[in-house]
Specification:
Blueprint: H1 2-22, H2 61-88, H3 95-127
Length: 131
């Protein structure tokens, strides 16, 4: 059980570092990504806790997840706007930009769905634990 949760956390951290390196602005949202500065442990986490850092100034997991969802939503809205501009014949919206934006929003959405699936599986595992 603990291994499954550790695996999910390491995958989230891996995704966070990958996204932070590829997106301008440093990540998925104002918190800097899915774990923020302190990882999953929020501002109330003890030093060396779940997040692996003191968590000073780090957003809570809920805030970080909310920021990530907002960023995915904004990527999708930006893609829709760019596609509409391309269809109108706007010279600033060339096909390459539209395709890159569509792929970026698709990858972000698939990653969000995967994080949701992992969280649901972790929740189910915890709920099925014997007392």
């Amino acid at each position: 059980m603990s291994d499954a949760i550790s695996s999910v956390l390491s995958q989230i951290r891996s995704y966070q570092s990958q996204v932070g390196q590829t997106l301008p602005g440093g990540g998925l949202g104002a918190g800097g990504g899915v774990g923020g500065v302190g990882g999953v442990g929020g501002t109330n986490a003890p030093a060396g806790g779940v997040g692996g850092a003191a968590g000073v100034g780090a957003p809570s997991f809920g805030d970080a997840l909310g920021n990530a969802l907002k960023k995915v939503n904004s990527l999708q809205a930006e893609t829709r706007d760019l596609q509409a501009a391309f269809e109108r014949g706007d010279p600033k919206a060339d096909l390459a930009r539209v395709m890159v934006a569509a792929q970026a929003s698709s990858v972000a959405f698939r990653a969000t769905v995967e994080v949701r699936n992992r969280l649901v599986q972790a929740y189910q595992d915890v709920m099925n634990m014997p007392l």
